[in-house]
Amino acid sequence: MSDEQRTFTVPAVNMGRLRAKLDDLNKRARKLGCVEAELRVLREYETTVRNELGIEVYPYRRKWYEVEILNAEPVRLSGWRFIATIEPTEAGNIIRAAGDVEVPQRYRTSDMTCDHCHSNRYRKEVFVIQHEDGRYAQVGRNCLADFVGSTSAEHLVAQSQWLDELRGLGEEAEEGFGGGGGGFERGEETFGYVAICAAAIRMYGWLSRTEARYGVGRQATADQAWVWVVGPMGYNKDAFADMERDGFSVGQADVELATKAVEWARAIPADVQNDYLYNLRTASSLDEVTGRNSGIVASLVQAYLREVERIEVERRKREAEEANPSEWVGEVGKRDVFTLNVVGCIELQGDYGITYMIRFTDDDNNVVVWRSSNNFNWAHDTGHTVVLKATVKQHGEYKGQKQTYITRAAVIEW
Ligand SMILES: [Zn+2]
Description:
By secondary structure, the chain is of the alpha+beta class. The protein has helices at residues 15-32, 141-147, 153-175, 190-204, 209-213, 221-230, 237-245, 252-266, 275-285, 294-323, and strands spanning 4-11, 38-50, 56-71, 80-89, 92-97, 126-131, 136-140, 187-189, 288-290, 335-350, 353-361, 367-372, 385-398, 401-413.
């Protein structure tokens, strides 16, 4: 046998774990006297993603690494190396090969005779070993050490197990469906995942995982997006069929919304106070979404839409103010009745203690301000309409806005 050499195609999200696990295996390799394995990246590329039905999960592109895991074969003991374990069953022999090695077909039907002691008795297993010169031998566990002329026959087995694990590692990293713990995960490209979330929100409305847990009869947005990208498999089957029947698809507008949302989240300052926004920034900055952070990434579109709405409301308010600027109302020194909407109340610390500045607007957008020493809990009445009887104290201006200052106000009607 020449050097073991295998190439694997690994999703980008699993590359970090692959490297970490290989490091662990190599630590063991040094103890076992195996030659350490080496990971070599041959190329990186992206693919469009189709789900199980062959539908392209637009605008998905998944990043892959083609890697080579090279390792020289394990050290031979006295020229022998371990090839396979043979376990007899009533239906025939089960052959567990140590990796890619070829096990001669005769071992499928061989009896349990040990080539060392030549006894054929019941054994749970025998080992097939191969010499450098090509010879094979079948040896029982107790004779293995004597046969290869080494006290550490178990070593051969340990080495072969190590090799098995090494090969399993590449395959696991390719699959990427282990999930959770230290296992490999399936990752999805962030922009694409968010675009699918945007489409799900457009078609079904936003639903958090917490709300979905209370059994509203459909899946959370984060899970709908996952279902769509994974395809109709296992417990996803019904949910996928529902979405398909509803004509679910990701459109250009969803892609644009997703792009803006991701860019917005990535630009959230790192020192932002709010923990949710900080996590959103972090999760959205990754190239790939995993099952574990899919919930927060799915909430991105909703958070972005809220932000856009907040900015829009402010813009409209500013525009309305510009189109219909505040004018003075009433006559200075005269007492009058005013119907006003409560805008807000702020506390002011003055020389004579705390006063409260309550701001109102009337239906023509004119600003009225009352400074009162009493807190009537106005802050809680924001948005309410009151009828006040008050004296106009002054027609003033603040930051270019005309404001009417009132005094000795009495509430006539809520
Ligand atoms: Zn024997």
